[in-house]
Amino acid sequence: MTIIYKHNFSQYNKMSSIKEQFDSMKKQCPFCKIISKELESNIIWQDEICTAFLEINPATKGHMTIVPNEHYSLFSATPPKVLNHMFKISHKLIEIIKKSMGKTSYNIFIPIGQISGQMVQHAALQIMPVDNEEYIKEFDVDSKTFDQDKWKESHEKFKQIYPMMIANIGKKKEPIPEDQIIKIVKENLQLIEMYNTDPEGFKLQATILNAQLRNLFEGQDIDKIMIKANE
Ligand SMILES: [Zn+2]
Predict the structure, then answer these.
(1) What is d(CA 18, CA 7) in angstroms, rounded to the nearest whole number?
(2) What are the beta bridge partners of residue 183?
(3) How far is the CA of 36 from the centre of ligand 1 (A)?
(4) What is the gyration radius of the CA atoms in the chain, in angstroms?
(5) DSSP state of 134
(6) pLDDT, position 10
(7) Domains in the chain, please, with CATH?
(8) What is the pLDDT of residues 144-186, one digit of tens each?
(9) Between β-strands 42-46 and 125-130, what pairing exists: parallel, antiparallel or unpaired?
(10) How far is CA 110 from CA 78, 167, 177, in A?
(11) 24 C-alpha vs ligand 1 centroid, how far in Å?
(12) How far is the CA of 70 from the centre of ligand 1 (A)?
């Protein structure tokens, strides 16, 4: 466990301006601007966790985007409880689409990463109601040829990691005991250095930006632990 942490934290050396970098990223982010109402938009739902609005350049009639209010750059980096809430809200919005537009077919689109079509570096889930005229023809898989080799290669890769990953799904995560976290931190002096250099930046990593640190510190008083680890 220690070795894993040591290895993976190495990329977070430059901590001095994390908070400034994050704030400037948020300032430039169009979704953050929509959430804060700095940018005019057609918000149809907003609560303390997420915001839903009609797309400015809709792919279909009624196309809407749901985003977490906090700036998580990727859907895959968004905490599960935030994602759960976003799905709950999307379920309600789909009901509204059905009742108001009479559309019962829709696509839920979640691009993760630029190549997949993620245009804004802020996690988002999109609902696109569709009807016959608007059906997206590119999803017509029948016309594609099936590549057996590619399929086999992917399957072999999945088989290696799948049993381990699947065994942990649905298991309630036990919080890591405080003394265990302190031990991990003490064994990774880099973390203490990161905290001492920029406590606010470190806390930002441990609460929003870095999923691994988030897991380690979940539900904990970060200052208290880091002060103890410093002793
Ligand atoms: Zn944002």
Answers:
(1) 20
(2) none
(3) 10
(4) 21
(5) G
(6) 45
(7) 1-15+148-231 (no CATH), 41-141 (3.30.428.10)
(8) 666 778 778 877 877 777 776 666 666 777 778 899 999 999 9
(9) unpaired
(10) 12, 25, 35
(11) 10
(12) 7
The alpha carbon of 120 and the centre of ligand 1 are apart by a number of angstroms equal to 8
Whole-structure pTM value: 0.74
Asked whether 35 and 67 are in contact (CB, 8 A), the reply is: yes
Asked if residue 129 lies in contact with residue 62, where contact means CB atoms within 8 angstroms, the answer is: yes
Please give the distance, rounded to the nearest whole angstrom, from the Cα atom of residue 35 to the centre of ligand 1. 8
Q: Compute the distance from residue 33 Cα to the ligand 1 centre, in Å.
A: 7
pLDDT in tens, 207-230: 988 888 988 898 899 999 999 998
Pairing of strands 105-109, 42-46: unpaired
Distances 161 to 149, 155, 157, 198, 226 between C-alpha atoms, Å: 19, 10, 7, 36, 34
What is the whole-number distance in angstroms between the Cα of residue 71 and the centre of ligand 1? 4
| Surface-to-core class of residue 218, CB atoms within 10 Å of its CB (0-12 exposed, 13-18 middle, 19+ buried) | middle
What is each CA distance from 69 to 32, 87, 111, 124, in whole angstroms?
7, 14, 18, 10
SS3 assignment for 175-219: CCCHHHHHHHHHHCHHHHHHHHHCHHHHHHHHHHHCHHHHHHHCC
Calculate how far, in angstroms, residue 143's C-alpha sits from the geometric centre of ligand 1: 38
Two tokens at 135? Answer: 């059906």
